[in-house]
Design brief:
The chain is 27% helix and 23% strand. The protein is α+β, with helices and mostly antiparallel strands.
């Protein structure tokens, strides 16, 4: 099966049989505490971690095409809005095993932060590492004065969607494809009680 190019994003458009879906957290109040499991360490980005970061992404997202270091640098650390202190990793026995980072779609953004590229190695499932890095990113958003958060994920990532729902994110479909995807997702999670907009769709920033 062909692997998807991680440098391409067509949010809300079908990706083969899958659909990208958006979620928003309307405020950053009432965040849970950052809880690091025993044996793990939460750290932030430093230049010496870049190659390890790219290798970690390949391990976390094996269904995607291999991450290109040059392209990844041009999309992240070479951009004005890159925040080393908002780029989190979990380290275990000297190796990076989970990651997520805060992103601003525009360098001068002051309201909305994006929780970006949340990933954890399969070998560490059950340790709530995805939750840890997501919560760390949300706390960072508060520290820099952002007011709300959003993220994009895919309709087949049910454990991730369930986590984000528990952390206060809500579905914000941007088109009919996302509405249909959200109906399937919420039904699979037993959360059909969550209301969905049926349009017309407001293209949120």
């Amino acid at each position: 099966m062909a692997r998807r190019n991680p440098m391409e994003s067509v949010s809300g458009e079908p990706m083969g049989k899958h659909v990208d879906v958006r979620m928003d957290r309307p405020d950053l109040e009432g965040l849970p505490p950052i809880e690091v499991p025993a044996g793990y360490e939460l750290i932030t980005f430093s230049p010496g971690l870049f190659e390890e970061w790219v290798a970690l992404l390949d391990r976390c997202f094996p269904e995607l095409e291999p991450f290109d270091k040059g392209k990844w640098a041009s999309r992240t650390i070479e951009r004005a809005q890159f925040m080393p202190e908002g780029t989190f990793f979990v380290r275990h026995s000297g190796s990076l095993v989970a990651t997520a980072f805060c992103w601003l779609d525009e360098p001068d953004e002051r309201e909305l932060g994006r929780v970006h590229w949340v990933g954890a190695e399969d070998a560490h499932r059950g340790r709530s590492l995805g939750r840890l890095v997501t919560v760390a990113v949300l706390h960072h958003m508060v520290s820099v004065g952002l007011k709300r958060a959003m993220l994009d994920t895919q309709d087949y990532r049910l454990p991730a969607v369930n986590l984000y729902l528990k952390l206060g994110f809500v579905p914000t479909p941007q088109n009919e494809a996302q509405v249909d995807a959200w109906r399937r997702v919420l039904s699979s999670l037993g959360r059909s009680d969550i209301p969905l907009s049926a349009g017309p769709f407001e293209q949120l920033p």
